[in-house]
């Protein structure tokens, strides 16, 4: 019974995120050196939001240095952009959802835009106020 109630609460949280992001230019920002779990999480979130008619751009600062991550991008035909390629378009008023990392972490560059949401599985070391936060430590 408690599990069902917990799942219902999670569903409501997702509805809150979807409603909050609608109508806003949104970036899904991964940590500076995206690895396969960051890439898969960002891509999965992008597809989920696309289903709910929210277009997003996946971005990162730094480099993709793992061969497995580069292959994921190719095999799944992902559109993933280094910050240098979206810098001219990114504005302070744009929304950022941090994926597989959190603002103020040492491997997370503070890009222009408003970090309004966080989806992560790492511990929080420096608190940040988000409009929506889903951090489940694994």
Strand and helix map with partners:
Elements: H1 2-21, E1 26-30, H2 36-51, E2 56-60, H3 67-75, E3 80-82, H4 83-86, E4 95-99, E5 114-120, E6 132-135
Parallel strand pairs: 1-2, 1-4, 2-3, 4-5, 5-6
Q: What does this entry look like structurally?
A:
The protein is α/β, with parallel strands linked by helices and 138 residues long. Helix content is 36%, strand content 21%. It is globular. The mean pLDDT is 87.
Rg result:
15 Å
Number of strands: 6
Kindly report the spatial arrangement of strands forming the biggest sheet. 3-2-1-4-5-6
The residue-averaged pLDDT reads 87
Task: Give me the secondary-structure category.
Answer: alpha/beta
Sketch the topology as an H/E string, one letter per element.
Answer: HEHEHEHEEE
Low-confidence stretches: none
Terminal-residue CA separation: 24 Å
Number of helices: 4
Features of this protein?
138 residues, globular, six-stranded parallel beta sheet, alpha/beta
Short overview:
By secondary structure, the protein is an alpha/beta fold.
